[in-house]
Amino acid sequence: MTISNTQVITPELIAAHGLKPDEYERILSLIGREPSFTELGIFSAMWNEHCSYKSSKRWLRTLPTTGRRVIQGPGENAGVVDIDDGDCVVFKMESHNHPSYIEPYQGAATGVGGILRDIFTMGARPVAAMNALRFGAPDHPKTRHLVSGVVAGVGGYGNSFGVPTVGGEVEFDARYNGNNLVNAFAAGIAKSDSIFYSEAKGVGLPVVYLGAKTGRDGVGGATMASAEFDEDIEEKRPTVQVGDPFTEKCLLEACMELMKTGAVIAIQDMGAAGLTCSAVEMGAKGDLGIELDLNRVPVREENMTAYEMMLSESQERMLMVLDPEKEEEAAAIFKKWGLDFAIVGKTTDDLRFRVIHNGEEVANLPIKDLGDQAPEYDRPWREPDTRGTLPAHLIAQPEDYNAALLTIVGGPNQSSRRWVYEQYDTLIQGNSLQLPGGDAGVIRVDGHPTKALAFSCDVTPHYVEADPFEGGKQAVAECWRNITATGAEPLASTDNLNFGNPEKPEIMGQFVKAIEGIGEACRILEFPIVSGNVSLYNETNGEAILPTPTMGGVGLLSDWRKMARIGSFSEGDHVILIGQDGEHLGSSSYMRDVLGLVDGPAPTVDLHLERRTGDFVRSAINNGQVTACHDISAGGLAVALAEMCMSAGKGMELSIAQSRGLAHALLFGEDQARYIITVQPQFANFVCASAEGCALAFRRLGTVKGNALVIDDLVSVAVEELRTAHEMWFPRFMAAPGGETQPA
């Protein structure tokens, strides 16, 4: 056996590949010799944090991943959940944080492209996308540039590919100054008996390269994403991939056509670590070996080395195990779509991963060990400090409630995101029922007369920092609530766990406790996690981001004609609070935006109450008793009411005078398990009696009336004044001196 080893393996080279000295010793023990340069790159790709989950695997195993509707949980390209009638929804969320900070347009664009490939690799046609974006402080000199580039990248790729963006989040905080977050979600629909998996089967079968040509873009991208940033960040720009959404659209159609022929035995997209990861995962899952001949790989650049080809993260590429009897038919399909189709290797029975280049064997490694023997760490962690109680009477009340409300709805984190989502195509495919700006995005299931899917993604990072356990619970609960508020049954979830350096016990403690909270919430709410992603080392010069475990969820509406919206009420409808009065102001938007303080504990999440309240609200919606519904979250009751009024263009006359609480807590408290519903007058008594019968707190607030939001003598603001404040922050911010008014 001849192993190419043209470059001396030094401690500096090992460190540059993100491998610790003890990890390199493990490599030597596994293969019994010094690795070649290409082999070192392969181990680096497979053993980095991004691909191996070596710091998080232990804790991810504790999450609930099964349920009555789950067809496929974590471990494949995406999760699969049954939606009746022989259909299923395939969905996942992934991060592209590091690339999007280095090169915002391409980083975000290829994040969208990668998550879309995860969906159609499994045989599902993408039908919806979302994104959760977090940027630094608005006054930071780089923030506008990042917002402009990321939003343009998300829209540029998704719009060209042809998938509607139906929801998402955009938030600002100084803790993201050196590390923005770009979390991309996609969902597709397939037939439940026609799902494609990545497990290779059969010996001596052709391994086929599909899609675009391989270049040098993205070499080492996964390793880059598994380390902190420092002052040398600009040197990492070549590790960012370059995307082509039109090629991806052709790849989608070619794959859909190919899958109907019966030619596909196994298929895997080339995402992080490119050809290396896709080949190793397919072979290892099937207990087979893989042999690749790199001279057969279609390339777009001359004199590429084996190392570059194995670690390139060029986009719009797939790897497939093919039924050899279907080779001619399969090749013709890809030729028709203008894409490369090349047999680059074969499956073997020796559990080896062999790579040949220019007739020379440049890698020969145990394929199972590349994945199964990756280091798994039980990293030290410290119980996080949680903030003590902060009763409402110790928190200052505003001098002017109108001004406080306008400050929140017109501020960086609660203002309209219209500037963002109007750059996305939200209507393509013609099935969108609810667009961004409500509780959840909703799309019709094409071909079915009444069925629809609801999507939401949520997290409140300040809660997670204040108390990772309660904050983790709340992220799940809010996602579940937003889906419920449309009338949909929450089915399952996906997670995107964004944290700092796991080698620091305080950061690892945040991660552990957040996972515990997420797991408890998913179990009690029957909202299993079927896919997801972990993004660690989100730090720059030692400063970590806010802990941000984003939750994405999918819900099912059996009849979208009964769906609730946040502003679908009429004059004279009664406005009812379902849930307790507001009391909790700790870690709230009111404290941050009005008082300029970050203090106090996260709100406690009573998951059993959350479940009972949500089930009641969903039942009332599906029984036709609710004209509009909105969950109460950031900003509390007052902000939720304002959002409903702005959505409908109608006012409300309300009262909280019967409550014993403090006015600022009643209006701005962020207590959980709460909804506002509107009902027609003839249903008001019945709905309230039903809530009482279910042992749920409720309060009649008043009626839909006039053109202003009026709450006793505390709040009286014209809906148009609210709307102006709400709509103008983002465009003014992007048009400010030094800002980019057009997408980069």
Please tell me about this protein's structure.
- The chain has a 7-stranded mixed β-sheet with strand order 8-10-7-11-9-12-13.
- The chain has 744 residues and is an alpha+beta fold.
- The protein has a domain at 565-738: PurM-like C-terminal domain (Phosphoribosyl-aminoimidazole Synthetase, Chain A, domain 2, Alpha-Beta Complex), CATH 3.90.650.10.
- The radius of gyration is 26 Å and the shape is globular.
- Strand 12 and strand 13 (360-366) form a beta hairpin.
- The protein is built from 25 helices and 28 strands.
- The chain starts with 10 loop residues before the first helix and ends in a 9-residue tail after the last helix.
